[in-house]
Design a protein that fits this description.
A hairpin with a 6-residue loop joins strand 5 and strand 6. This protein is an all-beta fold. Strands 2, 4, 5, 6, 9, 10 and 11 form a 7-stranded mixed beta sheet that branches. The protein has no helices and 11 strands.
């Protein structure tokens, strides 16, 4: 059974930091590209970041570049998203996702999804 379980969300003030983690089971983690997406209230889900199978390549949305860092631990089957200098516009439900094909910002390329973790940034 495939499971992606996000943790680490919460409430933080503007300028603060949070670290999201996604624990994966049910498939061979090291053979999948991993990504993070987010959905703000009233908006469509959007790409945040992605990381290659080895962790050697990363890709970020312009809106988070320089503030967020994606990483993975293939020994622990986890992918993380370190979020610094948070802004109110970062408020959203954050989802991790798995993609067996290529590093991508397209949601349709991702086969498996977590349930999401709420991140709220207060002004």
């Amino acid at each position: 059974q495939v499971q992606l379980v996000e943790s680490g969300g919460g409430l933080v003030q503007t300028g603060g930091s949070l670290r999201l983690s996604c624990a994966v089971s049910g498939f061979t983690f090291s053979t999948y590209v991993m990504g993070w997406f987010r959905q703000a209230p009233g908006k469509e889900r959007e790409f945040v970041a992605a990381i290659s199978r080895s962790g050697g390549s990363t890709y970020y949305a312009d809106s988070v570049k320089g503030r967020f860092t994606i990483s993975r631990d293939n020994a622990k089957n986890t992918v993380n998203l370190q979020m610094n200098s948070l802004k109110p516009e970062d408020t959203a439900v954050y989802y991790c996702a798995a993609n067996s094909m290529r590093i991508s910002a397209r949601q349709s390329d991702y086969e498996y999804w977590g349930q999401g973790a709420q991140v709220t940034v207060s002004s």
